[in-house]
Design a protein that fits this description.
single chain; about 350 residues; alpha+beta; 434 Repressor (Amino-terminal Domain); Immunoglobulin-like; 4-stranded antiparallel beta sheet; about 25% helix; disordered C terminus
Length: about 350
């Protein structure tokens, strides 16, 4: 992952003034914008999650307002930047209050390394399956350690829909992770109703297995989200250099899913996916939508949307299964004909990747 931040100066370095102050301000603003864009958040959405006025993030990114320490800390928490935004704010604040030239400066800690900067994703295979009640996600990544230090953890994020009927809970998610089949432990980085962020650890209760320089490994994690909490979209954000990305969506054919996708980059608004998807129907009553791309652009976001032309049938309870069918009545037949007409109209609508 490319980083605009640099190591902070140590004791005895000349104070930051003039252009250096401008550079420190720009470094904070650029890092904030990059992190927000990678997270797929608008300025208004980020401000809402940080409990700030909706216009405040825009003023900070444009340079019209000065960032505060409280703002930097909240942005760190919401965007999961591991303290980088706060330390960039410290560098800006130190520059703003620089003493006279030649006066000694207190030592400042270097910016913390970004664990992702030492990784390349050679292959990502993401799949999502809807069973009528729950969305089951599985992400597989083939990682290559290209840095000069061991990688001990890997960051991942789960985001529910802002208009969800229920919050995300750890019991619902039931997160599971493994590295080459070996279970991985994990620690919580952020726990909010609509967002969960986790550091997957390259270790378990038995032993540690960090990814050393030059090594490659598969990691896999899976989680579950109920339909009332998950929106009708599935997004893949390219936060690390990635050589190949594939996404597979599976739905019950009875739902008559319509699927489409958009891609967004740091320099371009959303546009239709450039690659053509494949659609397959299986004998078990599911329809599968498959899409892939080689060398996806860093910081790009690929968002897959769907729409059901028919609502999934709720599962039958035992009493309903045992009850005998009611005799046909004229009003029931009329409703059946009306339903058939609506179904015919739906079939005449232009479907996307059915």
């Amino acid at each position: 992952m490319d980083q605009s931040a640099t190591t902070a100066p140590t004791s005895g370095a000349p104070p930051l003034t003039g252009a250096a102050l401008t550079d420190a301000t720009a470094a904070f603003r650029h890092e904030l914008t990059r992190r927000r864009t990678e997270a797929g958040l608008s300025k208004k959405a980020l401000a809402r999650r940080m409990a700030f006025d909706p216009s405040y993030v825009s003023h900070i990114e444009s340079g019209r307002h000065r960032p505060t320490e409280d703002f930097a800390r909240r942005a760190d928490d919401v965007l999961g930047s591991g303290g980088r935004l706060w330390l960039l704010w410290r560098e800006y604040d130190r520059a703003r209050h620089s003493p006279a030239e030649g006066a000694p400066l207190p030592a400042t800690a270097p910016l913390p390394p970004d664990p992702g900067s030492d990784l390349v994703v050679e292959r990502e295979e993401a799949s999502m399956r809807f069973d009528g009640e729950n969305y089951l996600m599985t992400i597989r990544r083939y990682l290559h350690s290209v840095g000069n230090r061991p990688v001990a953890q890997y960051w991942m994020k789960i985001t529910g829909d802002d208009a969800a009927e229920a919050p995300l809970t750890w019991e619902m998610i039931n997160l599971k992770a493994s590295c080459n089949g070996e279970p991985m432990t994990w620690r919580i980085a952020r726990d909010q109703p609509a967002v969960k962020q986790v550091w997957l650890q390259f270790k378990n209760d038995s032993y540690e297995f960090p990814l050393y320089p030059g090594e490659r490994t598969w990691i896999e994690y899976s989680y579950t989200v109920t339909k009332g909490t998950w929106g009708h979209w599935f997004q893949r954000a390219i936060r690390l250099p990635t050589r190949y990305l594939a996404v597979r969506l599976s739905f019950p054919a009875e739902c008559e899913p319509r699927v489409w996708g958009t891609e967004t980059s740091m320099t371009a608004d959303g546009a239709p996916l450039a690659a053509t998807p494949q659609v397959d129907r299986s004998a078990d009553g599911t329809v599968e939508w498959f899409w892939e791309i080689a060398q996806p652009q860093l910081n790009a976001r690929y968002r897959l949307h769907w729409q059901f032309q028919r609502a999934p049938e709720p599962p039958l309870v035992a009493d309903e299964q045992a009850a005998p069918p009611e005799p046909d009545r004229p009003d029931r037949l009329d409703r059946s004909r009306a339903g058939a007409r609506r179904s015919a109209l739906n079939r005449r609508r232009p479907a996307v990747f059915k």
